[in-house]
Amino acid sequence: MATGQLYEVFARRTRDEPLGHVGTVNATSIDFARVYARTTYDEENWIEMIVVERAAMIPVIELEPLVEFKEAE
Amino acid sequence: MTLISNPEDLGADERQSLANWLTAMSDTKHLLGLRYAEWCTGGPELEANIAASAMAQFELGHARVLRGVLSDLPEDPRGASRATDRSTWFSIGALDRPFSGWVDLVIGNALVDTLLTVNLGSALAGNYHPLTQRLRKVLAEEEYHSVHADAWVKRLASGPGEIVERLNQVINNVWPHCIAWFGPNSGNGLDELHDAGVLADSAADLRNRYIETVSPMFEGASIRPMSDLEIDWDGWNKAGRRHGVPVFEDDCFAMITGANNRTLGVGD
Fold first, then answer.
1. A15, part of any domain
2. What is the pLDDT of residue B26?
3. What Gene3D superfamilies is this protein classified in (chain A) (predicted)?
């Protein structure tokens, strides 16, 4: 089986709260991402849920790595 | 359309047809929930396990909803012998045995779950208020089961040759049970419900809608359910909507009847 790609999942419970990040799913297609997001993060009565392929997210401020790797001399 | 809220506004024969249909629907959902649950730790990826687990929970919940409607009918066919007599269970023959692999689960999802959903859609458009007021949420939950089935059928159909061959085998095993569920042209139990307005569609229209609903899942693949299936109606049981009686394994029968927990004072 293919290992798939990461999708970020966002959801909200009410109209007056912003979409919040609730987790990720690993999926081989958008359809799988939709189903897996719905079934994995079903602990609330969400009124909206979206998935975004992580590779499609555009960094504005990039997270600096905690550890810097140096080439061996 | 005038909605019927009181079962007594239906004739006795119509209530009997409704009670049989509700038993067949809820028993099949109960078995489907069990079969999904048996694979909720055996899927090819963790998210697939979670999906199987969630779908199992929904199927059992839907069975409970339908049984709530069923229990208001004096013609409810479930009696004391239900805990010991397999013939009182009206589940589809395709679920008599456990799924032997993930392909079986996917085809159960694609063909059996969709069959139930098409039936419920017809009841939502019908006139029996105890059903119509409950089915909108059930059908909304089923939307994700359809997406799951479609995604998996397409993924497996583009897989290695042995997977495609297994898909074909399972489809050919399950499909006759599903088509037989709609019954012969007359005396099928569904037309009686259509005449009473409980189902918006006749048996023939329901069967055609079912075939139209599942066919797109198989488009572009070298697999598809047989379109020219001839059913031998000898031994077909109108109440159970199937040939013969269930041949569940003993463990399964004990599980669905709660037989091993009778001493705790709980059961079906």
1. yes
2. 98
3. Phenylacetic acid degradation B (3.10.20.520)
- The model's confidence at residue B258, banded by pLDDT at 50, 70 and 90, is confident
CA distance B219 to B232: 28
Q: Provide, as residue numbers in chain A, all residues whose Cβ is less than 8 Å from the Cβ of B144.
A: 34-35, 38-39
pLDDT in the model for residue B120: 98
The closest CB to that of A32, out of B46, B54, B151, belongs to B151
The domain containing residue A34 runs over which residues?
5-56
CA angle B114, B118, B124 (to 5 degrees): 135
For chain B, domain boundaries: 12-77+102-263
Tens place of pLDDT per residue across chain A (73 aa): 457 899 999 999 999 999 999 999 999 999 999 999 999 998 899 999 999 999 999 999 988 888 877 777 6
Architecture of domain B12-77+102-263: Up-down Bundle (1.20)
Do the beta carbons of residue B214 and residue B225 sit within 8 Å? yes
Q: At B64, which amino acid appears?
A: R
The closest CB to that of A36, out of B44, B47, B155, belongs to B47
CATH of the domain at A43: 3.10.20
Interface of A with B (CB under 8 A): 1, 4, 25-29, 31-32, 34-36, 38-40, 42
Q: What is the β-pairing status of strands B242-243 and A5-12? A: unpaired
At how many degrees (to 10) do helices B114-124 and B203-214 cross?
Answer: 130
Put simply, the answer to whether B54 touches A1 (Cβ < 8 Å) is: no
Contacts A–B by Cβ distance under 8 A:
41
Phi, psi (5° rounding) for residue B160? -60, 160
Residue A67 lies in a domain: no
Chain A partners within 8 Å of B54 (Cβ): 38-39, 42
Give the distance from residue B49's alpha carbon to the nearest chain A alpha carbon, in angstroms: 10
Q: Classify residue A40: in a domain, yes or no.
A: yes
Any domain includes A9: yes
Place of tokens 């208001």: B72
- Complex ipTM > 0.85: no
Question: Which of B46, B53, B148 lies nearest to residue A35, judging by beta carbons?
Answer: B148
Q: What domain count does chain A have?
A: 1
